[in-house]
Amino acid sequence: MTMTSSGYVGRFAPSPTGPLHFGSLVAALGSCLEARAQGGRWLLRMEDVDEPRCSQSAADDILRTLEACGLEWDGAVMLQSARKERYREVLERLKREDLVYPCACTRRELADSALAPDGAAIYPGTCRNGLPPGRQARAWRLRVDDATVRFDDAVQGRRRQDLAGEVGDFVLLRADGYFAYQLAVVVDDADQGVTHVVRGADLLDSTPRQVFLQRCLGLSTPHYAHLPVAVNAAGEKLSKQTLAPAIDDHDPVPALVAAMRFLGQEVPPDMWRLATADFWVWARTAWQLDRVPRSRSLAAIFLAPNAGNADRDANQRVGGPKGGTGQ
Ligand code: GLU
Predict the structure, then answer these.
(1) In testing the pocket of ligand 1, which one of 47, 73, 188 has its CB within 8 Å of the most ligand atoms?
(2) d(Cα 267, Cα 281) in Å, to the nearest integer?
(3) What sign does the CA torsion over 190, 196, 198, 204 have?
(4) What's the pLDDT score for residue 293?
(5) Which residues face 88 on adjacent strands?
(6) 327 neighbors 303 (Cβ within 8 angstroms)
(7) For 18-40, what is each residue's pLDDT tens digit?
(8) pTM for this one?
(9) What is the reported pLDDT for 5?
(10) N or C: where does the chain have the smaller number of CB atoms within 10 Å of the terminal CB?
(11) Cα separation values, 10 from 13, 134, 323, Å
């Protein structure tokens, strides 16, 4: 446990859908180093709200890999699957205030709607003024207003989104009975006292929804910094689906060093030879958030953990602004 007085509270919030890979390591490392650089606390939250896609074994694997990497979080791990009562309480409050409404629309009925930046349908407002006759509620949606949401991102700069036009009323309780990530993340960040969110830029377009919900609930908005997302040669985000290699728990330093490079940090040669504890001594003094490239995604060519030394030297050259895909 790190004792601090700065008031900065950061967090890492992985979804346990698979082992920790290079893409999630980047978010873990960046959020941790920035919290430590600010004399802050760094919390860990398992985002298993989407229970059908998550597993206990993936959560255990992630914790083991974080420990092997020397990433030390403060306090107990928060588990979203244990917080459903809390989410329900918040939804009930929004119902009482008439800020949410039941929605009967199926995915198929929304298939012709234009798409939001994250690929979801922009909700056309079908059920906004009441369920059509004979239809049952499936999901609950938050009413968005016409105001443009603006925020300043410490990496990506000033951002704005016309929520009504680009996203529409969004789901807080899903048709399958699970709470939506957007609700869980806002309630959890507030309940954990998070002041600074450092995470992947794949969530940049979700942030205005979170800021809007914070305002509906009278919560303060944390500071945001969205790091570039690691993509493969085909431009796809590294994930379980794109078969990103897991981090090697027995030899994590090459991946940590590659993550530092990916985040634009100045890395002397041969750093992959360091012991894990020495990596941290160096990384904590070297880290500078303002060196992180301002792009939403970057090519990551982090090779398999059992790569030979020549390949490891190749890893040393990976990352940095030149690799930007300019998204
Ligand atoms: N659970 C999300 C993920 O693994 C991160 C959410 C967040 O940091 O707000 O992509």
Answers:
(1) 47
(2) 13
(3) positive
(4) 97
(5) none
(6) no
(7) 999 999 999 999 999 999 999 99
(8) 0.91
(9) 67
(10) N
(11) 10, 47, 27
CATH class of 9-81+228-318: alpha beta
pLDDT at 114 over 60: yes
Q: Domain spans of the chain?
A: 9-81+228-318, 83-191+206-218
Q: Do domains 9-81+228-318 and 83-191+206-218 have the same CATH topology?
A: yes
The correct answer on CATH 3.40.50.620 for the domain covering 83-191+206-218 is yes
Task: Give ligand 1 pocket residues (Cβ under 6 A).
Answer: 13-15, 47, 185, 199, 203
User: Hey, which of 12, 15, 49, 202 would you mutate to test ligand 1's pocket, going by the most ligand atoms within 8 Å of its Cβ?
Assistant: 15
Cα 27 to Cα 99: distance, rounded to the nearest angstrom = 33
**CA 271 from centre of chain:** 27
